[in-house]
Predict the structure of Plexin domain containing 1.
Amino acid sequence: GESTGGEHPAHRSSSGHSRTSRAVQGGGLTISTLPDNMTRVVEDSGKYYTWRSFGPEDQRTQDLWVDMSDVRHGQVRVHGILSNSYKQAVRVALSFDFPFYGHYLRQITIATGGFIFTGDITHRMLTVTQYIAPLMANFDPSFSKESTVQYLDNGEVFVIQWEQVRLSGRESVGAFTFQAALYKTGTITFSYRDIPMSLDVIGSAEHPVKAGLSDAFMVMSPSSQSTGSPRQTIYEYHRVEIDTTKITNYSAVEFTPLPTCLMHDSCELCHSSNQTSGCSWCHVLQRCSDGMDRHRQEWLDYNCSEEVQLDIENYCLFYIFTYVKTDSSNKSEGLANTGVIAGITAALVLLLALVLVALYINCHPAAASPLYLIQVSTE
C-alpha cells in the first residue's frame, strides 16, 4: 500500500488551507522544484530510450489514452490527499517491478505538480533529476472540486491521471487533463487531452515547466578543505526532454526502453552481448554496468572501475576457475583432483591474462571517457 493511507473517493473541504494541512498530517511528502539554472541539461544520447510523439491526427494517440472510466482497465483510485493538496506528493507501491533506466522500481512518488518522482532518497535536488514528467508545472489540485489525481494498477500497467487540474495563480486559463502510463515492459507513455493554452508561456523561474525523463545518482565526494567532511554530489547522467510546444490537445509521447548493461547477469553476457556496449563486469558485486547508474557509489566503493578489463574468453574464465579452485579446497578429499586441475588451469589462464594485459596496455593507451553530468553540492 501507501505510506499515507490517504486514498478514498474524492471528498474536499471548503478551505484550501485546511486541505493542505490535512495532507501534511496524513503523511504527505512536500516536494519543491528548483529553477532551471540549478541544473544543466544533459544531452539525450539515445542510449536509454527511443521515443516518438503523436498528434491529434495519429491513431496511436487515441490508442495510448487509457480511459479511466472503463472498468476493463482495472479499479481506479482517486487519491484524497493529492486531489485536495498543493505542492504535495505521496508514495505509492506498484504491483510489479517497473524497469526505469535499467533498474527496477517497486514504488514511486506521485506529485501534485504533474510528475512522478522515481528515487529512493527524497532530496530537494533529486526530485528534479529523477523523474517521469508528463507535464511538470505549478498545478494546484486543491483549487477546484473537479480536480483529481487518480490512478489504476492492473499488474501490467500503472496509470496516473491528473484530471482538470489548474495552474496556481493562473486558474482562469483553464483546466489541464493528462496522464502517464508505466508498463511492466518498461515502456512509458504520456497522453494529453486538455491543454488549454500553449505551454511555452506558463513557466517561470520558480516553477519551470518540463516534460520528459531524467535519472541521476548521488555519490560521496572527497572531503572539502573548508569543512573537512565529505560532500554529497548529485550527478544527472541522462535526461530526455520533450519540446513542450508540441504538447497540445490530443497528443501523446511513447518511450521505448533500450537494453542496458544492468540486464546482464553473467560475466560472459556482460562482455559479449551485441545489445549493449561499454559494459564491465564487477566480480565482487556480480554486476554488469557501465558505471553510470544509481549503483555508482557501490561501484566506486568496491573499486569495480579498477578491475582490469580483459578479453572475454580469458577474463571471465580466469575468475570462474579461481572460484572452482577455492570451492574445491573446502570439499571432501574425494574432490582433491578437481581442485588441483582447476588450480593448474587458473595458473595458466593467469599467465595468459598477464601477457594480454601487457599487450592491451601497449596497444590501447588509457583514455578517460567523457561524462556528461551535472554536479550540485548538497552540503
About this structure: Residues 1-41, 365-379 have pLDDT under 50 and may be disordered. The helical segments are 16-25, 59-64, 80-83, 267-272, 296-301, 312-329, 336-363. Residues 312-372 form one domain. Residues 336-363 form the longest helix (28 residues).
